[in-house]
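Writing this down once: the sequence line spells out the residues, with the fold written below as integer tokens. I am pasting one below:
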Amino acid sequence: MTTLLEFKDVDVHYGPIQALKKVSLDVKEGEIATMIGSNGAGKSTLLMSIFGQPRISSGQIIYRGEDISQKSAHYVASNGLAQSPEGRRIFPGMSVEENLLMGTIPIGMEHCDEDMQRMFELFPRLKERRNQRASTMSGGEQQMLAIARALMSRPKLLLLDEPSLGLAPIIVKQIFKILEDVASTGMTIFLVEQNANHALKLADRGYVMVNGEIRLTGTGEELLVNPEVREAYLGGH
């Protein structure tokens, strides 16, 4: 399988504090890779560093064979990387449809109508709410909108930061079923998630981050039964 994204010995600092320590990992084309870890482990920092916010202190971030670690966020987004950020960060005063249109900024409007229809097929709830202000929707609907907005840029790699955060268990199940449907289209997904159970069941491969370092790696199935993972993230079950 072709490697789409690779971190090579990446360090990230916030002033004197080191947030990532010699992180090396890769995401292969067509797979779902996940990173699990507790709150504050450095997972979101890792995703944001892809877009240069923050810039890495040392190492390389290679995307499709090119070092993008010093490229602008716009350059990265217009070359096939899209992120659904932690906390959703939709445009609350805009309608669902207007939010989706914002997702086309990196690539232009050429496929807009076709892609919007595809989003409404993937996310029927959004079709029902297409003219509704995003701020008036439920947390689960807003998460669906954030994912759909990212997909509107036709990414080669979809980055998801804590898509289950703050959602009721039944909604979390719905979100992960949608991600499974998205992956079945051949989309490459890199998922960062505290909900280890759902993430590892969905993932082909997984990484465990602790205090800014990769501590474990393996297939989703291997990590689900790993005693350390079970004890730390699955309540021992």
